[in-house]
Amino acid sequence: MGKRVALVLAGCGVFDGSEIHEASAALVHLSRGGAEVKIFAPNIEQRDVVNHLKGSPAEERRNVLVESARLARGDIQDLAELKASEFDAVIFPGGFGVAKNLCSWAVDGKNCTVNEHVRSTLQAFHNAKKPIGLCCISPVLAAKVFPGCEVTVGQDKNVDGRFPDAETASAIAELGCKHICKNVNESHVDKANKIVTTCAFMCKAPLHEIFDGIGTMVQEVLKLA
């Protein structure tokens, strides 16, 4: 019987929501792994809306759940309805929406606050000793909620210009967590906390390498489930 996995989205679009390629990659690998997936998102207003063609702010308001429904093909539920007891694991794709909508990292960095339903979801899976998968910027959620955990967002130095956001690793360390340097096609497993992370688009890499890295994260999550 396939594992039951909850996928939590943060909107639709890299600059103000979930990174679409990451969400799709997670769904493809979960499908290949025989998992039964349900998709969730918080029913809240986005912090901002970005015109992805121009790369500039748009003067409009959007709802995270409504926008996430685009990625979920309409089959989605309010994150407030997610019950950890009904699932074997939870996965969070990345994208700026994680740092804007699921928490305030984009504005406050390591001093950020985490959305109450996101925090309670993470804590519920952790308390039940069920695996949590996070990619791209999403590992900062674990770093904020679980001091002392181990995560990766790639490298802690901008190696060959491929890791422009390497300072995120330092902020994670300042939160009392251990950052593990990994390549884009790898993931890190914190066995004690059952947290699996991979850097995805935190690295400037070909799409297939990002896809493969997310695949290793999903595979490790399913092994732990």
Automatic annotation (TrEMBL):
Q: Per its UniProt entry, which superkingdom is the organism in?
A: Eukaryota
Which InterPro entries does this entry report, sorted A to Z?
Class_I_gatase-like
Q: Report the NCBIfam families cross-referenced here.
A: PRK11780.1
Q: What is this protein called?
A: GAL3A protein
Native species: Anhinga rufa
What broad taxonomic lineage does this protein's source fall under? Eukaryota, Metazoa, Chordata, Craniata, Vertebrata
Task: Write the gene name.
Answer: Gatd3a_1
